[in-house]
Amino acid sequence: xxxxxxFQHRKPFFGFSGGTYNPDVPSEPTRSQNSSHPRVxxxxxxxxxxxxxxSDLLGITAQGIETIxxxxxxxxxxxxxxxxxxxxxxxxxxxxxxxxxxxEGIQAEKMQRxxxxxxxxxxxxxxxxxxxxxxxxxNRLLRETDMSIKRRGQVVDQMAAVLIxxxxxDARAG
Length: 174
Prior knowledge:
Order of helices and strands: HEEEHEHEHH
Number of helices: 5
CATH topology: Nucleotidyltransferase, domain 5
CATH class: Alpha Beta
Number of domains: 1
Structural class: alpha/beta
């Protein structure tokens, strides 16, 4: 006797124009699905730009999303707030620029203050994460591509944010 698959009543995957081929699964994640998979935002903060990276819904990989051109604190935090809301972010990871010796310097102190402002403004956990050589590594990785020098300059902060966030996630996973 020939048995029917329980999926035979569904539309085939090929040629289906809907958002998903399984009508029981929504195309876009809902708010409740997002909240079960917290998103983490990684920041590579510089004096001119802030590179941003976001964790995937499973918390396994970091992906670059954009670079904020810094203007002033009010506008910078406004742009960060939009990203935090859009991705339903629950934690922030900020690159912590230690000296090669591991000692804290002036830049590290600036990031401590910046991290505290983020905590107060967004009421989210903020983690400072060692970013030594993240920009150098990002530049090295981008030099290995066919990307133009101009384009590399535009994405290096985003790539550094990806490296910072990925390193933090890997360490947390254990």
